[in-house]
Amino acid sequence: MNKTVTINISGIIFHIEEDAFEKLSKYLGTIKGYFSRTEGGNEIMSDIEARIAEMLQTKINAVKQVVLMADVDAVIETMGRPEEFAGEEEPLNNTQPAEEEVNETGKKRMFRDPDHKAVAGVCSGIAAYFDVDVVWVRLAMFLLIFFGGVSLWVYIILWIVIPEAKTTADKLAMRGERIDINNISKTVKEEAEQVKKRMEKYGKDFITKDYSQPKNFFDKLANFIKDFFVLFGNLFGRVIGFILLTFGMIFMFVLLSTIFGFSVMGSNTEYNDWVNLFFIDRSHYTLGMLGIILCFGVPVLMMIYGGIKLLFKIHYSNRWLNLSAGLIWFIGFVIALFIGITTGKDFGNGGKIKEQVQLQQHDTLYLTLNRDKQLLASLNLNAEDDYNSHGEIRFKRHNSDYLIGKNPEKFFAGYATLNVVPSLTDNFELYIIKEARGEDRRAASERAKVISYKVVQKDSVISFDELFTVPATEKFRVQEIHILLKVPRGKVIHLDKNLASFISDVENVTNTFDSEMVNRRWVMTKEGLECIDCEGLEVNEDEHDLPAPPLPPGTVDVDSKDANVKINKDGIKIKSKDGDVNIDKDGIHIETKDKQHK
After folding, report:
1. pTM tops 0.70
2. DSSP-assigned letter for residue 508
3. Which neighbouring-strand residues pair with 462?
Protein backbone atom coordinates (compact mmCIF):
# COMPACT_ATOMS: atom_id res chain seq x y z
CA MET A 1 0.00 0.00 0.00
CA ASN A 2 1.48 3.35 -1.12
CA LYS A 3 0.64 6.84 0.04
CA THR A 4 -0.81 9.23 -2.60
CA VAL A 5 -1.00 13.01 -2.82
CA THR A 6 -3.16 15.35 -4.89
CA ILE A 7 -1.41 17.85 -7.18
CA ASN A 8 -2.42 20.51 -9.72
CA ILE A 9 -0.49 20.65 -12.99
CA SER A 10 -1.54 23.26 -15.53
CA GLY A 11 -5.01 23.48 -13.95
CA ILE A 12 -5.60 19.70 -13.97
CA ILE A 13 -5.93 17.68 -10.73
CA PHE A 14 -3.99 14.41 -10.44
CA HIS A 15 -3.69 11.74 -7.74
CA ILE A 16 -0.07 10.59 -7.66
CA GLU A 17 2.02 8.27 -5.53
CA GLU A 18 4.20 10.09 -3.02
CA ASP A 19 7.54 8.85 -4.39
CA ALA A 20 6.43 9.60 -7.96
CA PHE A 21 5.38 13.08 -6.81
CA GLU A 22 8.79 13.73 -5.29
CA LYS A 23 10.55 12.67 -8.49
CA LEU A 24 8.26 14.76 -10.69
CA SER A 25 8.57 17.78 -8.38
CA LYS A 26 12.36 17.54 -8.44
CA TYR A 27 12.28 17.19 -12.24
CA LEU A 28 10.13 20.29 -12.67
CA GLY A 29 12.25 22.24 -10.20
CA THR A 30 15.41 21.41 -12.12
CA ILE A 31 13.86 22.49 -15.40
CA LYS A 32 12.55 25.70 -13.83
CA GLY A 33 15.99 26.51 -12.50
CA TYR A 34 17.51 25.88 -15.92
CA PHE A 35 15.10 28.22 -17.69
CA SER A 36 14.97 30.85 -14.95
CA ARG A 37 17.73 32.84 -16.66
CA THR A 38 16.30 32.31 -20.16
CA GLU A 39 14.20 34.90 -21.92
CA GLY A 40 10.62 33.63 -21.99
CA GLY A 41 11.36 31.09 -19.26
CA ASN A 42 7.93 31.39 -17.63
CA GLU A 43 6.17 30.72 -20.92
CA ILE A 44 8.44 27.74 -21.56
CA MET A 45 7.61 26.30 -18.14
CA SER A 46 3.87 26.80 -18.72
CA ASP A 47 4.06 24.92 -22.01
CA ILE A 48 6.17 22.13 -20.48
CA GLU A 49 3.71 21.69 -17.60
CA ALA A 50 0.79 21.69 -20.03
CA ARG A 51 2.47 18.97 -22.08
CA ILE A 52 3.27 16.89 -18.97
CA ALA A 53 -0.35 17.22 -17.81
CA GLU A 54 -1.54 16.09 -21.23
CA MET A 55 0.73 13.05 -21.15
CA LEU A 56 -0.27 12.10 -17.59
CA GLN A 57 -3.93 12.23 -18.60
CA THR A 58 -3.27 9.46 -21.08
CA LYS A 59 -1.86 7.29 -18.26
CA ILE A 60 -5.05 7.24 -16.18
CA ASN A 61 -8.53 5.90 -16.85
CA ALA A 62 -11.68 4.81 -15.02
CA VAL A 63 -9.87 1.82 -13.47
CA LYS A 64 -6.41 3.31 -12.97
CA GLN A 65 -6.84 6.77 -11.37
CA VAL A 66 -3.42 7.21 -9.74
CA VAL A 67 -0.21 8.29 -11.45
CA LEU A 68 2.53 5.76 -10.73
CA MET A 69 6.32 5.98 -10.71
CA ALA A 70 6.43 4.21 -14.08
CA ASP A 71 4.19 6.88 -15.57
CA VAL A 72 6.48 9.66 -14.34
CA ASP A 73 9.54 7.82 -15.72
CA ALA A 74 7.85 7.53 -19.12
CA VAL A 75 7.06 11.26 -19.13
CA ILE A 76 10.65 12.15 -18.20
CA GLU A 77 12.02 9.85 -20.90
CA THR A 78 9.83 11.54 -23.48
CA MET A 79 10.41 15.12 -22.38
CA GLY A 80 14.15 14.74 -21.77
CA ARG A 81 16.28 14.49 -18.62
CA PRO A 82 17.68 17.62 -16.94
CA GLU A 83 21.21 16.22 -16.81
CA GLU A 84 21.22 16.16 -20.62
CA PHE A 85 20.86 19.96 -20.80
CA ALA A 86 24.35 20.99 -21.91
CA GLY A 87 23.79 24.72 -22.16
CA GLU A 88 21.74 27.24 -24.01
CA GLU A 89 23.76 27.05 -27.22
CA GLU A 90 23.94 23.24 -27.30
CA PRO A 91 20.85 21.27 -28.33
CA LEU A 92 19.31 18.91 -25.83
CA ASN A 93 20.24 15.30 -26.48
CA ASN A 94 17.25 13.49 -25.12
CA THR A 95 17.37 9.81 -24.54
CA GLN A 96 15.52 8.08 -27.36
CA PRO A 97 12.06 7.16 -26.01
CA ALA A 98 10.31 3.92 -26.57
CA GLU A 99 8.82 3.31 -30.01
CA GLU A 100 5.32 3.67 -28.64
CA GLU A 101 6.10 7.10 -27.20
CA VAL A 102 7.83 8.27 -30.42
CA ASN A 103 4.73 7.53 -32.41
CA GLU A 104 2.58 9.30 -29.84
CA THR A 105 4.56 12.53 -29.63
CA GLY A 106 5.69 12.67 -33.26
CA LYS A 107 2.22 12.29 -34.77
CA LYS A 108 0.72 15.29 -36.52
CA ARG A 109 -2.52 16.79 -35.31
CA MET A 110 -4.88 19.15 -37.08
CA PHE A 111 -5.07 22.64 -35.53
CA ARG A 112 -5.99 26.10 -36.71
CA ASP A 113 -2.82 28.17 -37.02
CA PRO A 114 -3.29 31.52 -35.22
CA ASP A 115 0.17 32.83 -36.13
CA HIS A 116 -0.35 32.82 -39.90
CA LYS A 117 -4.10 33.23 -40.16
CA ALA A 118 -5.98 35.41 -42.62
CA VAL A 119 -9.42 34.80 -41.06
CA ALA A 120 -9.46 31.95 -38.58
CA GLY A 121 -6.28 30.01 -39.42
CA VAL A 122 -8.08 27.09 -41.10
CA CYS A 123 -6.14 27.24 -44.37
CA SER A 124 -2.78 27.80 -42.66
CA GLY A 125 -3.51 24.91 -40.29
CA ILE A 126 -4.35 22.59 -43.18
CA ALA A 127 -1.19 23.72 -45.00
CA ALA A 128 0.93 22.95 -41.92
CA TYR A 129 -0.69 19.52 -41.51
CA PHE A 130 -0.09 18.52 -45.14
CA ASP A 131 3.21 20.43 -45.39
CA VAL A 132 2.20 22.54 -48.41
CA ASP A 133 2.29 26.26 -49.17
CA VAL A 134 -0.70 27.98 -47.62
CA VAL A 135 -1.21 29.95 -50.87
CA TRP A 136 -2.36 26.81 -52.70
CA VAL A 137 -4.81 25.89 -49.94
CA ARG A 138 -6.32 29.38 -50.02
CA LEU A 139 -6.49 29.24 -53.82
CA ALA A 140 -8.33 25.91 -53.68
CA MET A 141 -10.80 27.35 -51.17
CA PHE A 142 -11.37 30.34 -53.45
CA LEU A 143 -11.93 28.14 -56.52
CA LEU A 144 -14.56 26.10 -54.69
CA ILE A 145 -16.62 29.26 -54.20
CA PHE A 146 -17.61 28.97 -57.87
CA PHE A 147 -19.07 25.49 -57.29
CA GLY A 148 -22.15 26.41 -55.30
CA GLY A 149 -20.21 28.15 -52.53
CA VAL A 150 -18.90 24.81 -51.23
CA SER A 151 -15.75 26.27 -49.72
CA LEU A 152 -17.69 28.78 -47.61
CA TRP A 153 -19.63 26.05 -45.80
CA VAL A 154 -16.56 23.82 -45.57
CA TYR A 155 -14.56 26.68 -44.04
CA ILE A 156 -17.24 27.44 -41.44
CA ILE A 157 -17.54 23.76 -40.47
CA LEU A 158 -13.75 23.37 -40.17
CA TRP A 159 -13.61 26.59 -38.16
CA ILE A 160 -16.02 25.04 -35.66
CA VAL A 161 -14.54 21.53 -35.62
CA ILE A 162 -10.78 22.15 -35.70
CA PRO A 163 -9.32 23.52 -32.42
CA GLU A 164 -6.93 26.44 -32.36
CA ALA A 165 -3.26 25.80 -31.58
CA LYS A 166 -3.06 27.86 -28.38
CA THR A 167 0.00 26.35 -26.70
CA THR A 168 3.48 25.69 -27.95
CA ALA A 169 2.81 21.95 -27.68
CA ASP A 170 -0.20 22.35 -29.96
CA LYS A 171 1.89 24.22 -32.53
CA LEU A 172 4.56 21.51 -32.44
CA ALA A 173 1.92 18.81 -32.89
CA MET A 174 0.43 20.80 -35.77
CA ARG A 175 3.77 20.64 -37.59
CA GLY A 176 4.43 17.02 -36.59
CA GLU A 177 7.46 17.81 -34.40
CA ARG A 178 8.29 15.96 -31.18
CA ILE A 179 6.85 17.68 -28.14
CA ASP A 180 9.80 17.67 -25.75
CA ILE A 181 11.64 20.27 -23.72
CA ASN A 182 14.12 20.93 -26.49
CA ASN A 183 11.51 21.76 -29.14
CA ILE A 184 9.26 23.65 -26.72
CA SER A 185 12.09 25.92 -25.59
CA LYS A 186 13.27 26.35 -29.17
CA THR A 187 9.80 27.38 -30.36
CA VAL A 188 9.25 29.80 -27.49
CA LYS A 189 12.66 31.37 -28.05
CA GLU A 190 11.95 31.78 -31.76
CA GLU A 191 8.63 33.45 -31.03
CA ALA A 192 10.27 35.70 -28.45
CA GLU A 193 13.00 36.60 -30.92
CA GLN A 194 10.39 37.53 -33.53
CA VAL A 195 8.56 39.70 -31.01
CA LYS A 196 11.87 41.30 -30.02
CA LYS A 197 12.72 42.11 -33.62
CA ARG A 198 9.31 43.63 -34.21
CA MET A 199 9.62 45.75 -31.08
CA GLU A 200 13.12 46.86 -32.08
CA LYS A 201 11.80 47.82 -35.50
CA TYR A 202 8.90 49.74 -34.01
CA GLY A 203 11.27 51.42 -31.56
CA LYS A 204 13.69 52.38 -34.30
CA ASP A 205 10.83 53.76 -36.38
CA PHE A 206 9.64 55.67 -33.34
CA ILE A 207 13.09 57.16 -32.75
CA THR A 208 13.90 57.96 -36.36
CA LYS A 209 10.46 59.22 -37.28
CA ASP A 210 10.22 62.97 -37.40
CA TYR A 211 7.28 63.87 -35.21
CA SER A 212 7.98 67.53 -35.37
CA GLN A 213 5.27 69.60 -36.91
CA PRO A 214 5.78 70.76 -40.48
CA LYS A 215 7.38 74.12 -40.55
CA ASN A 216 5.11 75.62 -43.17
CA PHE A 217 2.13 75.02 -45.42
CA PHE A 218 4.22 73.40 -48.15
CA ASP A 219 5.59 70.80 -45.71
CA LYS A 220 2.06 69.94 -44.63
CA LEU A 221 0.95 69.68 -48.25
CA ALA A 222 3.90 67.44 -49.14
CA ASN A 223 3.18 65.12 -46.20
CA PHE A 224 -0.51 64.97 -47.11
CA ILE A 225 0.27 64.13 -50.74
CA LYS A 226 2.75 61.47 -49.64
CA ASP A 227 0.28 59.82 -47.25
CA PHE A 228 -2.48 60.01 -49.85
CA PHE A 229 -0.43 58.26 -52.52
CA VAL A 230 0.70 55.57 -50.05
CA LEU A 231 -2.92 54.89 -49.11
CA PHE A 232 -4.06 55.08 -52.72
CA GLY A 233 -1.26 52.72 -53.81
CA ASN A 234 -2.27 50.10 -51.24
CA LEU A 235 -5.94 50.37 -52.20
CA PHE A 236 -5.17 50.39 -55.91
CA GLY A 237 -3.01 47.28 -55.53
CA ARG A 238 -5.84 45.40 -53.85
CA VAL A 239 -8.32 46.53 -56.52
CA ILE A 240 -5.98 45.38 -59.29
CA GLY A 241 -5.49 42.09 -57.45
CA PHE A 242 -9.24 41.57 -57.20
CA ILE A 243 -9.69 42.35 -60.91
CA LEU A 244 -6.89 39.97 -61.91
CA LEU A 245 -8.28 37.24 -59.69
CA THR A 246 -11.86 37.68 -60.94
CA PHE A 247 -10.99 37.76 -64.63
CA GLY A 248 -8.50 34.93 -64.15
CA MET A 249 -11.26 32.76 -62.68
CA ILE A 250 -13.61 33.66 -65.54
CA PHE A 251 -10.97 32.87 -68.17
CA MET A 252 -10.13 29.61 -66.41
CA PHE A 253 -13.80 28.60 -66.37
CA VAL A 254 -14.17 29.39 -70.08
CA LEU A 255 -10.95 27.51 -70.91
CA LEU A 256 -11.98 24.42 -68.97
CA SER A 257 -15.45 24.60 -70.50
CA THR A 258 -13.95 24.67 -73.98
CA ILE A 259 -11.38 21.93 -73.36
CA PHE A 260 -13.79 19.51 -71.69
CA GLY A 261 -16.52 19.93 -74.25
CA PHE A 262 -19.37 21.99 -72.85
CA SER A 263 -20.09 25.53 -73.94
CA VAL A 264 -20.89 28.48 -71.72
CA MET A 265 -22.01 30.57 -74.69
CA GLY A 266 -25.19 28.66 -75.48
CA SER A 267 -23.94 26.70 -78.49
CA ASN A 268 -25.51 23.30 -79.18
CA THR A 269 -22.47 21.60 -80.66
CA GLU A 270 -20.71 18.48 -79.44
CA TYR A 271 -17.21 19.84 -79.05
CA ASN A 272 -15.15 16.65 -79.28
CA ASP A 273 -16.83 15.54 -82.52
CA TRP A 274 -16.08 18.84 -84.22
CA VAL A 275 -12.50 18.87 -82.95
CA ASN A 276 -11.93 15.36 -84.34
CA LEU A 277 -13.34 16.49 -87.70
CA PHE A 278 -11.08 19.55 -87.69
CA PHE A 279 -7.63 18.11 -86.88
CA ILE A 280 -5.72 15.96 -89.37
CA ASP A 281 -5.45 12.93 -87.07
CA ARG A 282 -5.60 11.91 -83.41
CA SER A 283 -1.98 12.85 -82.69
CA HIS A 284 -2.58 16.37 -84.01
CA TYR A 285 -5.70 16.56 -81.86
CA THR A 286 -3.77 15.55 -78.72
CA LEU A 287 -0.88 17.93 -79.41
CA GLY A 288 -3.28 20.72 -80.34
CA MET A 289 -5.21 20.40 -77.09
CA LEU A 290 -1.94 20.28 -75.12
CA GLY A 291 -0.68 23.41 -76.87
CA ILE A 292 -3.95 25.27 -76.22
CA ILE A 293 -3.96 24.28 -72.55
CA LEU A 294 -0.36 25.40 -72.02
CA CYS A 295 -0.57 28.50 -74.19
CA PHE A 296 -3.70 29.84 -72.51
CA GLY A 297 -3.70 28.03 -69.17
CA VAL A 298 -0.31 29.21 -67.92
CA PRO A 299 -1.07 32.95 -68.33
CA VAL A 300 -4.46 32.45 -66.68
CA LEU A 301 -2.89 30.64 -63.71
CA MET A 302 -0.24 33.33 -63.35
CA MET A 303 -2.97 35.97 -63.51
CA ILE A 304 -4.79 34.22 -60.66
CA TYR A 305 -1.53 33.84 -58.72
CA GLY A 306 -0.64 37.51 -59.18
CA GLY A 307 -4.16 38.57 -58.19
CA ILE A 308 -3.96 36.59 -54.95
CA LYS A 309 -0.56 38.10 -54.11
CA LEU A 310 -1.83 41.65 -54.66
CA LEU A 311 -5.15 41.09 -52.93
CA PHE A 312 -3.68 39.50 -49.80
CA LYS A 313 -0.40 41.49 -49.91
CA ILE A 314 1.76 38.38 -50.17
CA HIS A 315 5.35 39.44 -50.80
CA TYR A 316 6.65 35.94 -51.46
CA SER A 317 8.28 35.64 -54.89
CA ASN A 318 9.89 32.62 -56.50
CA ARG A 319 12.10 33.29 -59.48
CA TRP A 320 12.16 29.62 -60.48
CA LEU A 321 8.37 29.53 -60.53
CA ASN A 322 8.25 32.48 -62.92
CA LEU A 323 10.97 31.03 -65.14
CA SER A 324 9.27 27.63 -65.21
CA ALA A 325 5.92 29.18 -66.09
CA GLY A 326 7.52 31.15 -68.92
CA LEU A 327 9.27 28.06 -70.28
CA ILE A 328 6.08 25.96 -70.14
CA TRP A 329 4.15 28.72 -71.91
CA PHE A 330 6.78 28.93 -74.65
CA ILE A 331 6.63 25.16 -75.19
CA GLY A 332 2.84 25.35 -75.44
CA PHE A 333 3.09 28.25 -77.91
CA VAL A 334 5.51 26.32 -80.13
CA ILE A 335 3.25 23.23 -80.09
CA ALA A 336 0.13 25.27 -80.87
CA LEU A 337 1.95 27.15 -83.64
CA PHE A 338 3.18 23.90 -85.23
CA ILE A 339 -0.27 22.27 -85.15
CA GLY A 340 -1.90 25.48 -86.39
CA ILE A 341 0.45 25.70 -89.39
CA THR A 342 0.15 22.02 -90.36
CA THR A 343 -3.65 22.07 -89.99
CA GLY A 344 -3.94 25.39 -91.81
CA LYS A 345 -2.10 23.92 -94.80
CA ASP A 346 -4.92 21.41 -95.17
CA PHE A 347 -7.29 24.37 -95.69
CA GLY A 348 -4.91 26.15 -98.07
CA ASN A 349 -6.42 25.41 -101.49
CA GLY A 350 -9.95 25.12 -102.81
CA GLY A 351 -11.28 22.62 -105.28
CA LYS A 352 -14.65 22.12 -106.94
CA ILE A 353 -16.56 19.54 -108.94
CA LYS A 354 -19.34 20.59 -111.33
CA GLU A 355 -22.00 18.00 -112.12
CA GLN A 356 -24.86 18.53 -114.58
CA VAL A 357 -28.30 17.07 -113.90
CA GLN A 358 -30.26 16.15 -117.02
CA LEU A 359 -33.72 17.73 -116.92
CA GLN A 360 -37.00 17.05 -118.66
CA GLN A 361 -37.92 20.20 -120.51
CA HIS A 362 -41.23 21.99 -119.76
CA ASP A 363 -42.51 25.50 -120.22
CA THR A 364 -42.85 25.86 -116.46
CA LEU A 365 -40.80 24.15 -113.74
CA TYR A 366 -42.08 23.95 -110.18
CA LEU A 367 -39.23 24.11 -107.67
CA THR A 368 -39.70 22.77 -104.17
CA LEU A 369 -37.62 21.59 -101.19
CA ASN A 370 -37.37 17.96 -100.13
CA ARG A 371 -37.11 17.51 -96.38
CA ASP A 372 -35.76 14.00 -95.80
CA LYS A 373 -37.61 12.84 -92.66
CA GLN A 374 -35.06 10.17 -91.84
CA LEU A 375 -32.18 12.63 -92.17
CA LEU A 376 -33.97 15.29 -90.16
CA ALA A 377 -34.76 12.76 -87.43
CA SER A 378 -31.09 11.83 -87.14
CA LEU A 379 -30.20 15.51 -86.83
CA ASN A 380 -33.16 16.34 -84.58
CA LEU A 381 -33.31 19.95 -85.75
CA ASN A 382 -36.42 20.83 -83.77
CA ALA A 383 -35.18 19.74 -80.32
CA GLU A 384 -34.18 22.28 -77.73
CA ASP A 385 -31.36 20.21 -76.26
CA ASP A 386 -28.16 18.84 -77.76
CA TYR A 387 -29.41 15.26 -78.12
CA ASN A 388 -32.62 13.65 -79.26
CA SER A 389 -34.25 10.60 -77.68
CA HIS A 390 -31.89 8.29 -79.59
CA GLY A 391 -28.75 10.01 -78.37
CA GLU A 392 -28.05 11.60 -81.75
CA ILE A 393 -26.08 14.83 -81.84
CA ARG A 394 -27.17 17.97 -83.65
CA PHE A 395 -25.86 21.49 -84.14
CA LYS A 396 -27.89 24.29 -85.70
CA ARG A 397 -27.82 28.08 -85.50
CA HIS A 398 -28.62 29.36 -88.99
CA ASN A 399 -28.50 28.18 -92.58
CA SER A 400 -24.76 28.62 -93.10
CA ASP A 401 -23.81 26.27 -90.29
CA TYR A 402 -23.00 22.58 -90.28
CA LEU A 403 -24.62 19.78 -88.33
CA ILE A 404 -23.61 16.43 -86.85
CA GLY A 405 -25.77 13.34 -87.01
CA LYS A 406 -25.65 9.60 -86.47
CA ASN A 407 -27.69 7.13 -88.49
CA PRO A 408 -26.21 4.69 -87.53
CA GLU A 409 -22.69 5.91 -88.39
CA LYS A 410 -21.65 9.46 -87.65
CA PHE A 411 -21.76 12.06 -90.42
CA PHE A 412 -21.87 15.81 -90.77
CA ALA A 413 -24.14 17.84 -93.00
CA GLY A 414 -24.52 21.34 -94.35
CA TYR A 415 -27.11 23.50 -96.06
CA ALA A 416 -27.18 23.71 -99.86
CA THR A 417 -28.07 26.92 -101.70
CA LEU A 418 -29.84 27.62 -105.02
CA ASN A 419 -29.24 30.42 -107.49
CA VAL A 420 -31.11 31.16 -110.73
CA VAL A 421 -29.44 32.78 -113.76
CA PRO A 422 -30.33 33.22 -117.46
CA SER A 423 -29.53 30.36 -119.84
CA LEU A 424 -27.70 30.92 -123.11
CA THR A 425 -29.62 28.05 -124.70
CA ASP A 426 -33.29 27.22 -125.17
CA ASN A 427 -33.27 24.57 -122.43
CA PHE A 428 -33.31 24.51 -118.66
CA GLU A 429 -29.89 23.54 -117.30
CA LEU A 430 -29.15 22.42 -113.74
CA TYR A 431 -25.67 22.14 -112.22
CA ILE A 432 -24.54 20.90 -108.80
CA ILE A 433 -21.28 22.55 -107.75
CA LYS A 434 -19.45 20.73 -104.95
CA GLU A 435 -16.65 22.58 -103.16
CA ALA A 436 -14.10 21.68 -100.49
CA ARG A 437 -10.60 22.66 -99.36
CA GLY A 438 -7.40 20.68 -99.07
CA GLU A 439 -3.62 20.80 -99.06
CA ASP A 440 -3.72 21.21 -102.85
CA ARG A 441 -6.40 21.49 -105.54
CA ARG A 442 -6.31 17.79 -106.32
CA ALA A 443 -6.89 16.79 -102.68
CA ALA A 444 -9.65 19.40 -102.37
CA SER A 445 -11.40 18.08 -105.50
CA GLU A 446 -11.20 14.51 -104.22
CA ARG A 447 -12.86 15.64 -100.99
CA ALA A 448 -15.59 17.40 -102.95
CA LYS A 449 -16.44 14.18 -104.79
CA VAL A 450 -17.39 12.49 -101.52
CA ILE A 451 -20.19 14.99 -100.80
CA SER A 452 -23.61 13.36 -101.16
CA TYR A 453 -26.54 15.37 -102.54
CA LYS A 454 -29.73 14.55 -104.49
CA VAL A 455 -32.00 16.38 -106.92
CA VAL A 456 -35.15 14.56 -108.09
CA GLN A 457 -37.45 15.52 -110.99
CA LYS A 458 -41.01 14.21 -111.44
CA ASP A 459 -42.62 15.66 -114.53
CA SER A 460 -42.36 19.42 -114.11
CA VAL A 461 -41.61 19.30 -110.36
CA ILE A 462 -37.98 19.45 -109.21
CA SER A 463 -37.25 18.59 -105.56
CA PHE A 464 -33.99 19.73 -104.00
CA ASP A 465 -32.54 18.16 -100.86
CA GLU A 466 -32.19 20.78 -98.16
CA LEU A 467 -28.97 19.26 -96.80
CA PHE A 468 -25.87 17.62 -98.18
CA THR A 469 -24.04 14.98 -96.15
CA VAL A 470 -20.41 13.96 -95.71
CA PRO A 471 -19.29 10.78 -93.88
CA ALA A 472 -17.39 11.42 -90.64
CA THR A 473 -14.43 9.48 -92.05
CA GLU A 474 -13.75 12.66 -94.03
CA LYS A 475 -12.36 15.71 -92.29
CA PHE A 476 -14.27 18.97 -92.17
CA ARG A 477 -12.77 21.19 -94.85
CA VAL A 478 -15.50 23.78 -95.50
CA GLN A 479 -17.49 21.49 -97.79
CA GLU A 480 -20.25 23.35 -99.66
CA ILE A 481 -22.97 22.69 -102.25
CA HIS A 482 -24.17 25.40 -104.64
CA ILE A 483 -26.95 24.64 -107.13
CA LEU A 484 -27.18 26.67 -110.32
CA LEU A 485 -30.37 26.65 -112.39
CA LYS A 486 -30.17 28.26 -115.83
CA VAL A 487 -33.55 29.39 -117.18
CA PRO A 488 -34.00 30.12 -120.91
CA ARG A 489 -35.74 33.29 -122.03
CA GLY A 490 -39.53 33.00 -122.04
CA LYS A 491 -39.62 29.99 -119.68
CA VAL A 492 -41.23 30.14 -116.22
CA ILE A 493 -40.28 28.85 -112.76
CA HIS A 494 -42.51 28.64 -109.70
CA LEU A 495 -40.73 28.93 -106.33
CA ASP A 496 -42.42 27.02 -103.53
CA LYS A 497 -42.75 28.88 -100.24
CA ASN A 498 -40.43 26.36 -98.50
CA LEU A 499 -37.55 27.73 -100.60
CA ALA A 500 -37.42 31.02 -98.69
CA SER A 501 -34.15 30.19 -96.93
CA PHE A 502 -32.83 27.93 -99.71
CA ILE A 503 -32.48 30.39 -102.59
CA SER A 504 -29.45 32.67 -102.41
CA ASP A 505 -29.33 36.22 -103.81
CA VAL A 506 -31.43 35.49 -106.90
CA GLU A 507 -31.33 38.56 -109.12
CA ASN A 508 -34.57 39.90 -110.61
CA VAL A 509 -35.71 43.03 -112.38
CA THR A 510 -37.52 44.40 -109.32
CA ASN A 511 -34.72 43.69 -106.79
CA THR A 512 -37.16 41.65 -104.74
CA PHE A 513 -35.76 39.97 -101.63
CA ASP A 514 -35.42 36.18 -101.70
CA SER A 515 -38.00 35.73 -98.95
CA GLU A 516 -40.59 37.64 -101.04
CA MET A 517 -39.95 35.74 -104.26
CA VAL A 518 -41.42 32.47 -103.01
CA ASN A 519 -44.94 31.19 -103.75
CA ARG A 520 -44.89 33.06 -107.07
CA ARG A 521 -44.13 32.51 -110.76
CA TRP A 522 -41.18 34.15 -112.46
CA VAL A 523 -40.46 34.38 -116.16
CA MET A 524 -37.00 34.88 -117.62
CA THR A 525 -36.85 38.00 -119.78
CA LYS A 526 -34.07 39.81 -121.54
CA GLU A 527 -33.53 41.93 -118.41
CA GLY A 528 -33.81 38.96 -116.03
CA LEU A 529 -36.45 37.29 -113.87
CA GLU A 530 -39.78 39.08 -113.76
CA CYS A 531 -42.79 38.25 -111.60
CA ILE A 532 -45.83 37.57 -113.81
CA ASP A 533 -48.64 37.28 -111.27
CA CYS A 534 -47.92 39.57 -108.30
CA GLU A 535 -49.19 43.13 -108.36
CA GLY A 536 -46.81 45.42 -106.49
CA LEU A 537 -44.99 42.35 -105.11
CA GLU A 538 -47.02 42.48 -101.90
CA VAL A 539 -46.95 39.01 -100.40
CA ASN A 540 -50.34 37.96 -99.01
CA GLU A 541 -50.54 34.73 -97.06
CA ASP A 542 -54.28 34.40 -97.92
CA GLU A 543 -53.59 34.75 -101.64
CA HIS A 544 -53.91 31.32 -103.26
CA ASP A 545 -54.82 32.12 -106.86
CA LEU A 546 -51.46 31.00 -108.22
CA PRO A 547 -51.21 27.76 -110.17
CA ALA A 548 -50.11 25.03 -107.81
CA PRO A 549 -47.58 22.34 -108.75
CA PRO A 550 -48.97 18.95 -109.82
CA LEU A 551 -50.03 16.78 -106.88
CA PRO A 552 -48.75 13.22 -106.36
CA PRO A 553 -51.16 10.44 -107.43
CA GLY A 554 -53.89 9.69 -104.86
CA THR A 555 -53.74 13.18 -103.31
CA VAL A 556 -56.56 15.70 -102.85
CA ASP A 557 -55.77 19.30 -101.86
CA VAL A 558 -58.64 21.76 -101.29
CA ASP A 559 -57.69 25.33 -100.44
CA SER A 560 -60.11 28.12 -99.52
CA LYS A 561 -59.98 31.42 -97.72
CA ASP A 562 -60.85 29.99 -94.32
CA ALA A 563 -59.48 26.44 -94.44
CA ASN A 564 -57.28 23.94 -96.21
CA VAL A 565 -58.08 20.21 -96.59
CA LYS A 566 -55.44 17.73 -97.72
CA ILE A 567 -56.11 13.99 -98.23
CA ASN A 568 -53.38 11.50 -99.10
CA LYS A 569 -52.12 8.05 -98.11
CA ASP A 570 -50.97 9.35 -94.72
CA GLY A 571 -54.48 10.50 -93.71
CA ILE A 572 -56.56 13.64 -93.64
CA LYS A 573 -55.27 17.06 -92.54
CA ILE A 574 -57.59 20.04 -92.03
CA LYS A 575 -56.19 23.48 -91.20
CA SER A 576 -58.29 26.51 -90.35
CA LYS A 577 -58.00 29.79 -88.51
CA ASP A 578 -59.57 28.21 -85.40
CA GLY A 579 -57.38 25.11 -85.24
CA ASP A 580 -56.11 21.94 -86.93
CA VAL A 581 -57.50 18.40 -87.26
CA ASN A 582 -55.27 15.44 -88.20
CA ILE A 583 -56.68 11.96 -88.86
CA ASP A 584 -54.09 9.22 -89.33
CA LYS A 585 -53.32 5.67 -88.27
CA ASP A 586 -52.65 6.82 -84.70
CA GLY A 587 -56.12 8.33 -84.27
CA ILE A 588 -57.73 11.75 -84.39
CA HIS A 589 -55.73 14.78 -83.24
CA ILE A 590 -57.51 18.09 -82.63
CA GLU A 591 -55.47 21.19 -81.86
CA THR A 592 -57.10 24.52 -81.11
CA LYS A 593 -55.63 27.87 -80.19
CA ASP A 594 -56.00 27.06 -76.50
CA LYS A 595 -55.38 23.33 -76.09
CA GLN A 596 -54.79 20.00 -77.78
CA HIS A 597 -57.01 16.88 -77.78
CA LYS A 598 -56.18 13.36 -78.80
Report:
1. no
2. B
3. 367, 457
